[in-house]
């Protein structure tokens, strides 16, 4: 009986009508509609985050404008976001947001960000990603020439998104997040940017490169050994003084090599004792040099990208990735679409090259995620049919949108009208 009483109480609260005009408007906004408006996103900062993660969240916020609610300050209540998603849901409902985006970083889980969405004021699904590499939006010179209020073209490619059900949900939420606002029609002038999200295998490429380097090193060592043998045979006929000198030089070289190895070991230990986000930190000097190179040309972009992000991201270390959970990497790139793309007339004419406008980053999916329930997801995808209005005869719409109605009235027979009590028809009575 207690459970039934609780359910009845909850139903009465949900179906309760508002007592004030303001409350009535709030409840009316929360009701379901036939055509949903554009989805707003809540950008909120956790208690533990680095400066680079904060800049990363600001770049995503600038892409998503103006459908945003930005809260960059650190929230003490959100120290562990995964355990406190109910509070995030309450904040989203209060601000009328159906998406939430947040960043957090700890020693065990550095450089993480989370994307989630709501349905019917309840959590639908969320996914945690690990940020591997990142180039900010400010480093791209063409980033200021684009209007981020425009709707982009989103291209998602890679066999990774079709492997299993969770990857399909990841593809769905990424497309739903970056598609921006809902638009019925658009023109060529309104299309200005292209977002490309691609998934590829990173570990295989790295292992292949390492194998090539190892084979090349072995060949060089064999050649050096052959040369050393020939030199030793030639030097046997020399005096004992030359032999002693050679021995001294070799001893000095061995000592120097030992010192270099010790220094390398010390540097590795020092790097392991750094802060949580050592994997994402780079100095201001590197930032200034990259700006100069980017303003000159885009040819050095790959070199800059490698210089900023190589040997700083430890997610693909062999010791840490023994289980090979993160075989696939998802990359995000944004390009500028110019008018030249729409003026191609010839079939053999090649389209112009795309110019990147940033930001550029790579990320992988982590184990902490929640996929939507099947029935709830199908309900969210369901399209409700509108009630068709009954057609009214002799009514048409003008060019200006005015309804014009025509009424056809038949001729009236005045002899059949009921005129018994009218004064004008009464006969005058004369006294005789």
TrEMBL record:
Residue ranges occupied by any Brix domain in the UniProt entry: 39-374
The alphabetical list of record keywords is: Nucleus
What does the record list as GO biological process? maturation of LSU-rRNA from tricistronic rRNA transcript (SSU-rRNA, 5.8S rRNA, LSU-rRNA); ribosomal large subunit assembly
Q: What is one term from the GO cellular component aspect held by the record? A: nucleolus
Q: Where in the cell is it found?
A: Nucleus, Nucleolus
Domain of life of the organism encoding this protein: Eukaryota
Principal place where this protein is found? nucleus
- Establish whether keyword Nucleus is in the entry: yes
What PROSITE patterns does this protein's entry cite?
BRIX
Q: For the region Disordered, what residue ranges are annotated?
A: 211-279
Compositionally biased tracts (Basic and acidic residues): 211-267
**Record GO terms (molecular function):** rRNA binding
Family in the record: Belongs to the RPF2 family.
Name of the featured protein:
Ribosome production factor 2 homolog
Q: What is the lineage of its organism?
A: Eukaryota, Sar, Alveolata, Apicomplexa, Aconoidasida
